[in-house]
Amino acid sequence: MRQLLADKIEALGLAGEFEVLDAEIRGKRSGSLITFRGMSAVTAESIKSLEAYDIAWVEEAQTLSERSLMLLRPTIRKEGSEIWASWNPRYRTDPIDEFFRYKPPRGAVSVSVNWRDNPWFPDVLSRELEHDYATDPEQAAHVWGGEYGVEHGAILGRLVESAEREGRINDNVEYFPDGPAVEISSDLGFRDTASWWFWQRRVGGFALLDYDADTGLDAEEWIPRLQKRLEGEGWPLGYIWLPHDARNRTFQSRHTVREQFLEAFGNKVRIVPKTSKTDRINAARTILKRCEFHKTRCEVGLEGLRAWSYEFNPETGIFSKEPAHTAASHPADGYSYGAQMMTEAPAAEAARDERMVCIGPETKTTRPPTWDEFCEAGDKARRGAFDGEV
Q1: C-beta of residue 240 within 8 angstroms of C-beta of residue 198
Q2: Residue 72 and residue 44: Cα distance in Å, rounded?
Q3: DSSP conformation class of 150
Q4: What pLDDT shows up at residue 46?
Q5: Do 76 and 50 form a contact (C-beta atoms < 8 A)?
Q6: What is the pLDDT of residue 381?
Q7: DSSP string covering 267-335
Q8: Residue 359 has what pLDDT?
Q9: Which 3 state secondary structure label does DSSP give 80?
Q10: pLDDT number for residue 360
Q11: What is the pLDDT of residue 366?
Q12: CB neighbours of residue 75 within 10 Å
């Protein structure tokens, strides 16, 4: 931004009106002052010097952290002062999007602007735009159309976009009363976000009915919240799948999360076996191709799945071995734990074999089996594997 302004001052022949320094631009006659400051390492003390400013303009605001935004907002408090932010949308969960687009304060103005609004849009860029839409429409929709993007190194992003294009993300994904009970998979956190996905097995796949997440809540608060959600929807509970660290004791309680959930939900509580993150990622990729999602209820969770990615080192040109720990980690981990258990449950697979029939005891005719009849054999087969996890 500094270099752009310096170049414009020079191009307009106004070099004599401004003093252009490394970290600021001063108006020689007007007394105006523009300072340039990075926000990545901002502290409460360093940002206090901005309190007398009229305007704070945050460029590339998609990278602004929640902490930096929280420090900046109360600092720009001069009467009539404003915070401007300009950015190319990256993820629905980015703090700047949450603040300006989804939870805007009174008086906030949010305007979407792209190449269509530029009357001087040059031909050279038009050719680039056409090429990008022809070769990589998903990336072009982000770069040129302002849609949320698929990160370089994304783990599930393109699979989520495929589900969107194939119509598997919509508001018609509802609970099927004649199907199996709802299962819940989770990623636990107290200071970090705890996330919960609500699954229903379907013939040939899975329906993600709902997603819930919050920070600062412990097991004692989550248990009634989950119970209320299930009761309010009229969904019977199949299993709650907790991650393996639910066995750990914390300073918040004398009992482990597992113990507290067992007391509330009985033998419906299961612990996901500990496996490598690579195995969970593979399970998540495999299962996502067979999933459909309720678009509105799962919106925040889906954005987490889109944003889950490996960290890229531009100096070495190598991605990290583990996914980057960001806000996307929590919905993605909760989903991958569930995906791991969906791949390990044989009962759902039995239901996909349409050749299986049952003989009616009175009519002696064949009929499709009920879900309970399908599951009975599967439950017996896996009971030995899971009973030890109760």
Answers
A1: no
A2: 9
A3: P
A4: 67
A5: yes
A6: 45
A7: GGEEEPPP--HHHHHHHHHHHHTTEEEETTTTHHHHHHHHH-BEEEETTTTEEEEEE--STTHHHHHHH
A8: 42
A9: coil
A10: 43
A11: 43
A12: 20
Nearest partner of 67 among 43, 103, 98, judged by Cα = 43
CA angle 93–303–274, rounded 5-degree value: 110
Nearest to 188 by CA among 238, 253, 233, 236: 253
What string of DSSP letters covers 3-33? Answer: HHHHHHHHHTT-GGGEEE-SSEEEETTT--E
How far is Cα of residue 102 from the mean position of the Cα atoms in its chain?
15
| Cβ proximity of 206 and 310 under 8 Å | no
Q: What is the pLDDT of residue 255?
A: 80
Q: What per-residue confidence (pLDDT) applies to 245?
A: 80
Token couple for 384: 């030995």
Q: What SS3 string covers 323-384?
A: ECCCCCHHHHHHHHHHHHHHHCCHHHHHHCCCCCCEECCCCCCEECCCHHHHHHHHHHHHHH
What pLDDT shows up at residue 328?
84
* Sequence letter at residue 50: L
pLDDT at 242: 94
Q: Write down the pLDDT at residue 237.
A: 96
Q: Which residues have a Cβ under 8 Å from the Cβ of 100 and sit 6 or more positions away?
A: 85, 108, 110
Residue appearing with tokens 């993300």: 169
Report the C-alpha gap between 208 and 260 in whole angstroms: 25
What gap in Å lies between CA 163 and CA 146, rounded to an integer? 20
- Which residues of the chain carry a pLDDT beneath 70? 40-46, 48, 149-152, 190-192, 249-253, 312-319, 345-390
Tokens of 75: 């600092």
